[in-house]
Model the fold of this input.
Amino acid sequence: MGKKLRVGIFFGGKSAEHEISIISARSIIKNLDRNKYEIVAIALDQENRFHAAGVNPVIFDDCSLKLNGTIENIVNICQQIDLAFPILHGPFGEDGCIQGIFRYFNVPFVGPDVLGSAVAMDKDVAKRLLTAEKIPNTRNVVFHRHEHDTINYEKLSSELGKILFIKPANLGSSIGISKVKSFDDFVSAIDEAFLYDNKILIEEFINGREIECAVLGNEHPEISVPGEIVVKRDFYSYAAKYCDEDGAKLIIPAQLPSNISDRIRKLAAKVFQTLCCEGMARIDFFVTDNFQIFVNEVNTIPGFTDESSMYPKLWEASGLSYKKLLDKLLELAIARHARNSNLRATPQKSRSDNVIT
Ligand SMILES: Nc1ncnc2c1ncn2[C@@H]1O[C@H](COP(=O)(O)OP(=O)(O)O)[C@@H](O)[C@H]1O
Ligand SMILES: [Mg+2]
Done:
């Protein structure tokens, strides 16, 4: 048997989804085939410092990291692994930052490359690309911090509707997001969103079901069956996601007419390619009662717990087990790296260039 691939699993990190990331990593470490892979677990603490964590799942038992204090050098880590699997969420982990490190140090990695990660993370840029491709998405208006004083509630609510969603452009986990129905709510929601980003989106409210699709692949992505998230609260808020065990229920596959389901799956593939994604992504939609479909957003590193995360569950329902999904993601990372390694960085010298005169 050949040498085992050394897979670096990166998890934790400075993110509201720190704990979800740990639970996801625990599932991945438990399910990776030890006959094929040697696992190097790398925990990122709340300051995004790198620690060698060991692979004993007991260390993650209460979802908090028990770190021994030695901070590792990322350059050394990159030299010790054949492949990286970042299972980090939000800024720094999902937005192209850590992907840039892997690319710089020539380490193949799971999930979209730098550009796809950055584009999918920025809800404003993502929407502009979708709109350019005529992919239906929620209407919105963007404001930068310096435009704060020009934000006009009357004008926006007459354009976009009485109920509005206010969000930071680059975040996740519903952090900084508000659903507003009045001027007073609006003012505090704007301030709240600007706490987290210099750019915010004000969006029309879509009264619809939340439907999600999993995408897997590089040049020829495959699309899972769609699933539905049924939320008990006013919307799929931070509290519904993480503070309330019964905050949301997953229905897989989503109960939809087959033509609608097909349309959503085709759209998911188009969204994935439009946003320059490779490897994996979860594409989230709203579907109204009369089956109008809107793209909401794209997550390039979705939750990955084997018990309750939508992305692996959608694949399981589509005939791909959690273990096979992991194999496939690692294969895709290697395939992309091999493809890109063949690219030239500079023009090849012609013979005459080499003649010494
Ligand atoms: N335009 C909208 N209409 C209706 N609900 C929305 C809208 N935008 C966001 N939501 C609700 O807020 C949740 C979080 O918003 P989302 O844009 O997905 O941000 P995040 O990246 O933080 O998950 C969604 O899952 C949905 O419940
Ligand atoms: Mg979301």
In short: Residues 32 and 321 are 12 Å apart (CA to CA).
